[in-house]
Design brief:
It comes from Pristionchus pacificus (Parasitic nematode worm). With about 425 residues, this protein is an alpha/beta fold. It has helices spanning about 15-20, 75-100, 105-130, 140-145, 165-170, 215-225, 315-325, 340-360, 380-390, 400-410, 415-420, 420-435; strands spanning about 180-185, 190-200, 200-210, 230-235, 240, 245, 255-260, 265-275, 280-290, 295-300, 330-335. It has a domain at about 140-365: Alpha-Beta Complex (Protein-Tyrosine Phosphatase, Chain A).
């Protein structure tokens, strides 16, 4: 797979495009082939007194006689020492490879993911989840009574509903620090359940938001116009498993029109494609009648991503992100709650951007990318913590977290690298998790 926003990365070899310097320029470990030598046996000396002084030694007798019977090790010992030598050399080669890959963040990520395995990543996600629960003070506008009807999943207390409902609903909050502030007040407030999520080069690359409610359709199109967005990505369906997940906020058929306040949205075209996921591409004309201006909006509707689940490992996400990245304006991405499918999709693009930025800067990661200042050898933990500060609850469950790793491994590992037991086990455990 190629980079969603950049050039395609070769799969067969990473030497030319991913190393920070030619291999010969990197420090190489020297092999230590010194073996402990077997001591020569001492000459046999008699402790008896000689009855007469011995004659002077001849030239051939001037050196002590040393037995040569033990100079050659027994065959079994020789084979054992050869194996030890080979193991030592193999360790040196591994050490040398590690030094050559020392500045390769992609290789570090691959090694980290495979060493953790699926079970390790699931445990890691649960630990990260506990560290990223926002406080009520960090979501002040979400909790305001005037904004209650603008939230699809409202915060509830244990006194009103069961514990299960509390655990499900309390994670769909909206953080204050990164929220989109509407310039046009709606119902007396500037609030919409949406947050900016950035990449290293663009702090407002995406807007992650919930699926519009009937009461927030006007707000939604006001936000699209205000931020100059040219792409909208819809990752849910209007109804799923008998429940309403999103209001009908756009005209679905060609030539149809929908009016939302001062915005008139006209559907110009509809095209259904297999990427191989089912994607419907619509072109809208967004007409603001109050200022007499029009813009073209591209709407991408991914219809086959299951709620709280993951899609197959294929090229659909890559193709979708490639199209979205044609614009430098904030892309609006939503599912129902705007954190699970939305957070997973945005996370993948942000990680692509981070790795691309590292490569372009000779693998020197900028500490601002991660609050902890750690590089990719610690996995995606610091990244997820940062993203959840922008959009609370992003990447909703352990399946989605493992899916991100699986997709990145598929993208960045060559076929030769995949031919190893660790990757085979990872892929097998992943398939078992997703059943």
């Amino acid at each position: 797979m190629g980079n969603a926003c950049g050039r395609k990365r070769p799969q067969a070899s990473r030497e030319g495009s991913l190393r920070s310097a030619p291999e010969n320029d990197l420090p190489r470990a020297s092999l230590n082939d010194h073996e402990s030598e077997e001591s020569n046996p001492s000459p046999r000396v008699s402790t008896k007194r000689a009855s007469a002084p011995p004659p002077p030694p001849t030239a051939s007798q001037s050196r002590p006689r040393v037995s040569t019977k033990k100079s050659s090790p027994r065959p079994s010992a020789s084979r054992g020492r050869d194996k030890e030598k080979e193991k030592a050399k193999e360790k040196e080669r591994e050490k040398e490879d590690d030094e050559n890959n020392n500045d390769d963040p992609i290789q570090k990520f691959i090694s980290y993911a495979l060493s953790k395995g699926v079970s390790g990543l699931r445990a890691e996600f649960e630990e990260l989840k506990q560290k990223t629960v926002p406080t009520k003070d960090q979501c002040f506008h979400f909790h305001m009574g005037a904004n209650a009807q603008k939230n699809r999943y409202k915060y509830r207390t244990i006194d009103k509903v069961s514990l299960l409902t509390v655990l499900f609903n309390r994670d769909v909050v909206c953080s204050d620090d990164s929220r989109v502030i509407l310039k046009e007040l709606s119902m007396g407030t500037d609030y919409i359940h949406g947050n900016f999520c950035g990449t290293p080069k663009n702090p407002k690359r995406f807007i992650c938001t919930q699926g519009p409610l009937p009461t927030t359709i006007v707000d939604f199109w006001s936000m699209v116009w205000q931020e100059g967005s040219e792409f909208i990505v819809m990752l849910c369906n209007f109804n799923e498993m008998g429940k309403v997940k999103c209001a009908q906020y756009f005209p679905p058929m060609e030539k149809e029109t929908l009016v939302a306040g001062n915005a008139v949205i006209t559907c110009d075209s509809v095209a259904r494609q297999k990427w191989p996921g089912q994607i419907t591409i619509r072109r809208f004309t967004l007409d603001r009648i109050d200022v007499n201006q029009k813009r073209t909006i591209t709407h991408l509707h991914w219809e086959s991503w299951p709620d709280r689940g993951v899609p197959p490992i294929d090229s659909t996400i890559q193709k979708l992100l490639q199209m979205v990245c044609r614009s430098s304006k904030p892309a609006v991405v939503h599912c129902s709650a705007g954190i699970g499918r939305t957070g997973t999709t945005v996370a993948i693009q942000v990680i692509y951007s981070i790795l691309t930025t590292i490569i372009q800067s000779l693998f020197k990661i900028v500490t601002e990318l991660m609050d902890s200042g750690k590089t990719m050898d610690t996995g995606l933990g610091p990244f997820l913590i940062k993203m959840r500060k922008q959009r609370a609850g992003s990447v909703q469950n352990d399946q989605q977290y493992v899916f991100i790793h699986r997709l990145l491994l598929e993208r960045y590992m060559s076929e030769e690298e995949k031919d190893n037991p660790k990757f085979a086990k990872f892929a097998k455990d992943y398939d078992a998790l997703m059943v």
